[in-house]
Amino acid sequence: MSDFSIDKNPIVIGAGPAGLSIGACLKRAGIQSIILEQSDKVGSAWHRHYDRLHLHTDKKNSELPYAPFPREYPRYISRTQLIEYLETYAGKLQLDIRFYQQVLSACYENEQWKIQTQDKLYRSPILVIAAGYTREPNIPNWPGQNSFTGRVIHSSQYKNGEPFKGERILVVGFGNSGGEIAIDLWEHGAHPSLSVRNAVNVIPRELFGIPILSIGIVQGRMPPKLADAINAPILRAVIGDLTKYGFRKLPYGPATQIRQDKHIPLIDIGTMKLIQESYVTIHPGVKEFTADGVIFMDGKQAQFDAVILATGYRPQVNAFLHGASNTHDEAGTPSSSGRETSMPGLYFCGYYVSPTGMLREIGIEAMQISAAIAKNKT
Ligand SMILES: Cc1cc2nc3c(=O)[nH]c(=O)nc-3n(C[C@H](O)[C@H](O)[C@H](O)COP(=O)(O)OP(=O)(O)OC[C@H]3O[C@@H](n4cnc5c(N)ncnc54)[C@H](O)[C@@H]3O)c2cc1C
Predict the structure, then answer these.
(1) In contact, 188 and 164? CB cutoff 8 Å
(2) Is residue 309 a contact partner of residue 154, using CB atoms and an 8 Å limit?
(3) What is the pTM of this model?
């Protein structure tokens, strides 16, 4: 096992949008970083996501520092276009990325971060963790699940609706992945249902041709209650009465929900129309599984051939970050992002679920972090 003495080069964990942005911003500041990536490619998560995926955020508000998207890309770019963009970004900037370097442990000792991968030990006074908010799938477990004879997969394993043609599919979760997977299943001839546990808000991707994100950025300066009061009649006209379709409506609007609950409402790209036209059925939360389906919280039972868990992800930085428990909660979710933590030289990037889009936030955080590192160096 070789020991790399890196001198003062910052180490960055992860070559997704956040790690690449950090590398780019540091390079602009004249600092060469070393990016450790467990896979063999940049943006590896985007290679695994489902085929239909397009960004829900518009391209102007999704670009990384110093690199606009190509002019010919559409307003909402596809998964493959994002991959192409990330590869060009890393290549043009000649970032020093070390592939097949999975960080197994990072701890602070003798005023240095000791970062151990499967075959190398790196040392640096500065460590930026950009390993992804969606590092590990969140997979709940219900009573009776083992007796279910159909397939159960997490949304991270879903590629497209082809294998589910003609089948009754339950999608658990009403986030943006769940909403789009329901559309994809229907487009492939499956019969999707959605299990929605909590009360919800739904917002359109655009209002009067303006991306909802741009409206959110402008309204971000207002008190959320005021923004919700202004938006309520427009949303009612555009989205309709959610309770008519089996949803419970949150007693407060999307702006308050994002600020208070740190939860992004469904950005509708066509799911609501399928629900309104009864192509997608809404059910409450799952109570338990049976051999051929599930029982819902309202006691009703339904049969399904497969269940897709669009139940989100967890960052779980505690899987490799040791001795820094004051920087994250018990589940391994960092308590700050975009600035130096309470541990010397330790930064997280990409861990704030932002109302104005995570890619946009990643760019802002990367600039803040690189400025702080450059300042501390001088
Ligand atoms: C389905 C989906 C759709 C999304 N759509 C949008 C959208 O439309 N707009 C938007 O703004 N945001 C969106 N996001 C949120 C966010 O922008 C993306 O998740 C984005 O990829 C985050 O970038 P990241 O670099 O923080 O994390 P990731 O892209 O997850 O990259 C992290 C990298 O770290 C590597 N890594 C992890 N652990 C280790 C380790 N121990 N050692 C070494 N390497 C490691 C991983 O292999 C990976 O390459 C979406 C997220 C998902 C899941």
Answers:
(1) yes
(2) yes
(3) 0.94
Q: How far is the CA of 288 from the centre of ligand 1 (A)?
A: 31
Pocket of ligand 1 (CB under 6 A): 13-19, 36-39, 44-45, 49, 53, 55-57, 62, 102-103, 130-135, 177, 320, 350, 357-359, 362
Reduced DSSP (H G I as helix, E B as strand, rest coil) percent helix, strand, coil of the chain, to 5: 35, 25, 45
Cα 333 from chain centroid? 13
**Measured distance CA(231)–CA(228) in Å, rounded:** 5
The residue assigned the tokens 């960055």 is 12
Centre a 10 Å sphere on the Cβ of residue 19 and count the other Cβ atoms it contains.
Answer: 30
pLDDT at position 3 is: 52
Q: CA-to-CA distance for 193 and 151, rounded, in angstroms?
A: 15
End-to-end CA distance of the chain: 33
CA of 43 to the centre of ligand 1 (A): 7
Q: Which residue's alpha carbon is at the smallest distance from atom 7 of ligand 1? A: 55
Structure confidence at residue 262 as a pLDDT band (50, 70, 90): confident
How many helices and strands (H and E) does the chain possess? 9, 23
Residue 336 identity: S
> Which of 37, 83, 104 has most ligand 1 atoms within 8 Å of CB, for mutation?
37
| Cα gap 274→271, rounded to integer Å | 5
Ligand 1 atom closest to Cα of residue 359: 11
Distance 153 CA to ligand 1 centre (A): 20
8-state DSSP, 57: S
Say how many Å lie between the CA of residue 360 and the centre of ligand 1: 13
Helix (H, G, I), strand (E, B) or coil at 183: helix
The pLDDT value given to residue 46: 98
- pLDDT at 7 (0 to 100): 61
**Residue 113 pLDDT > 70:** yes
